[in-house]
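Quick question about two entries, pasted in order.
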Amino acid sequence: MSYGWLPGLPIVDAMTPAVLVLTGPVTRDEVPGLCEDVRALLGAGGSGVVVCDVAGLGPPGLDAVELLARLQLTARRSGGGFRLRDPTPALLALLNLVGLSFAIEGEVEGEPEEREPALCVEEAVEPGDPAV
């Protein structure tokens, strides 16, 4: 019995995101080339998501934050998604500190779901308040 599938598991390949591995400190001169790599990975088909492995990026700094922000922006402008793989707690804290936590929230691989409901928050509606 034949299903017409080609060798190489094309369905699995289409669901597997492309991975960009960052190693060592990245200089500003390398950023345009890495952005082009993201465009190329998204243009090659696949899942439409680029996973950026940052485990080997080194100590986080503002250069790393700028790099990740530009890579994510490039992916989104190219119509794709962007996720981080194995970020250090220090990198996540720095991204949060500079206000980019919204950019990676829910887009980090290997992190357990840790959302808890806010405590002591009450919402009240006053008569005459406009609907939001």
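Here is the second entry:
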Amino acid sequence: MSETDSKTADAAIFESLLTPQLGAAYGMALRLSGNTADAEDLVQEAALLAFRGFKTFELGTNFKAWFFRILTNAYFGKRRREKRRPTSVDLEDVPERYLFERTAEAGLHERSNDPASHLVSEMDVEQVTAAIDALPEEYRVVSMLYFLEDLSYQDIAEVLDIPVGTVRSRLHRGRRMLQKALWHIAEEAGIISKLKNEDAAS
């Protein structure tokens, strides 16, 4: 096979691997950057970087994890260049059973053995995503990759180039902060009042 034929074959393989990931990549880029124009630019930049570095990808391994590492690196690189401070809500150290305690205070334990899960089940994907978006950046990115992209601890470690133990600790703390963010969004959306009224009517 000539060098030209080899490059054409590589390009075809790259395209076949990249195309199924573009939807998820755009969704991740949109959650990271916050607007469609920046998300599109980020995906394009990551695709170009991935194509240039495709010879370093080992066929048969997890392409999604490999590509998302390039995507997140491109995002963090852009953030460093812009020298922007991450924006996040004030989420001080949150108790382990925050949602359990708040649902108990609200009197939501009468009809459900797991009122925290019942509360979350009343929320739509956009509300859960908004709660994740409220987390500080280091916890937000790990939570996005785990909860929204369904990547394993090992894959997330590879994407972010951090130890698996760091992934575990960030997810552990992120889950606790996420409980508080979920509660606030549920309050704002009227879900708490709705559940209280359902309990009162039963």
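Reply: The domain at 98-201 is CATH 1.10.10.10 (Arc Repressor Mutant, subunit A). The chain is about 70% helix and 0% strand. Hope that helps.
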